[in-house]
Amino acid sequence: MDPFRDFARSKDNTLGVEWEIALVDPVTRDLVPRAAEVIDEVHARHPDIHLEREFLQNTIELVTPVCVNTKQATQALQRNLDAIKEVADEKGLKLWASGGHPFSDFRTNPLSPKHTYEEIVNRTQYWGQHMLLWGIHCHVGISHEDKVWPIINAVMTKYPHLLAISASSPGWDGIDTGYASNRTMLYQQLPTAGMPYQFQNWDEWVGFMRDQQTSGVINHTGSMHFDVRPAAKWGTIEVRISDATSNLRELAAVVALTHCLIVHYDQMLERGEQLPTLQQWHVAENKWRGARYGMEALVITSRETDEDWVTNELRLLIDELTPTAADLDCLGELRLVEEIIERGAGYQRQRAIYERTGDWKDVVDATCAEMWDLTL
Q1: One GO MF term, please (predicted)?
Q2: How far out from the chain centre does Cα 277 lie?
Q3: Which residue in 256, 251, 197, 205 sits closest to 230, CA to CA?
Q4: What is the dihedral sign for C-alpha 31, 356, 250, 186?
Q5: What is d(CA 72, CA 62) in angstroms, rounded to the nearest whole number?
Q6: Tens-digit pLDDT string for the chain (376 aa)
């Protein structure tokens, strides 16, 4: 099997979700590098639960099995979360999830022992050391590699939509950055991360990946870490745009929107319809606007540079995707996007607390509480 050319075609538009959460000290509210011992204990009690060590020793990645829809995925994540909480409670630790921690010092957070992680930091130095970042990754099954890049390019036209509802990283190193998602700006500093190029077909992607191997890029980093990328081994498109949400209720909204969007574009291709695209510079501008302004972003909506508020766009998108959501039996989860619009995204809630109290510890406490207060 050629690891670059061969795409493990998925029969159905299956769904897989990865959710990164972290451990914090209930007194200091700082991150705690004890993920390995928590994961090992959970696996000892529940061998069938899939958890992964991540880039930092404070992080646990919850991984679903292959699912048919958002409901099935979030049910699996809830079971995983409950098992982690049981062990964390016994060890006197709290669970926390967000796009970025508002005051933890990156210099005091050790890497997990993995060669590719060490290579990333050795290669990228200062910027690689800043990766105190947590996200949601959604895999959606695709039936043929010829569909992959048209769908990815179309998904990128909805970048600020997926980011705005999940944005939850306004604080960094004890300051309010003024961004809804500081994670987005930090992560793109890695040379293998950021927006994918607008490849027109699978052969262009294969050539690119072979160039990365020849030039040694992949040897250093293990893979490309684009915001949306093919996962050829699994036969999926992996969407990595969203900040980690503090709770499963908002995660369900993010996952449903992502799943429905990709399935909708897949069905358009099946009908012979043309998918939407934007110029690369419009996509880049929208990404920045989503990271900076979140739910208050004015986004570019067409190749003619029309604009609209992202909240208006989200409501239109819910209407457009409602038939797809009904087919996938995730209409209730998709409509949770409206709830985020009304309640405010994670960064808005965090910023309001910080402006009121002037203490990021209060923000961490509230974010920890949301994991159990905002339930499905």
Answers
A1: ligase activity
A2: 21
A3: 205
A4: negative
A5: 14
A6: 577 889 999 999 999 999 999 999 999 999 999 999 999 999 999 999 999 998 889 999 999 999 999 999 999 999 999 999 999 999 999 999 999 999 999 888 877 877 677 788 888 888 888 888 999 999 999 999 999 999 999 999 999 999 999 999 999 999 999 999 999 999 999 889 999 999 999 999 999 999 999 998 887 556 889 999 999 999 999 999 999 999 999 999 999 999 999 999 999 999 999 999 999 999 999 999 999 999 999 999 999 999 999 999 999 999 999 999 999 999 999 999 999 999 999 999 999 999 999 999 999 999 999 999 998 8
- Using alpha carbons only, give the angle 145, 184, 31 rounded to the nearest 5 degrees: 115
Q: Environment class of residue 53 by beta-carbon count within 10 Å: exposed (0-12), middle (13-18) or buried (19+)?
A: middle
Domain-wise residue ranges, the chain: 15-373
Q: Specify the CATH number of the domain 15-373.
A: 3.30.590.20
Single pTM value for the model:
0.96
For 77, 340, 375, the CA distances from 249, given in Å and listed in that order, are 11, 10, 5
Q: Are 163 and 243 in contact (CB under 8 A)?
A: yes
SS3 content of the chain, % helix, strand, coil (to 5): 50, 15, 35
Which DSSP letter does residue 158 get?
G
Distance CA 300, CA 374 (A): 32
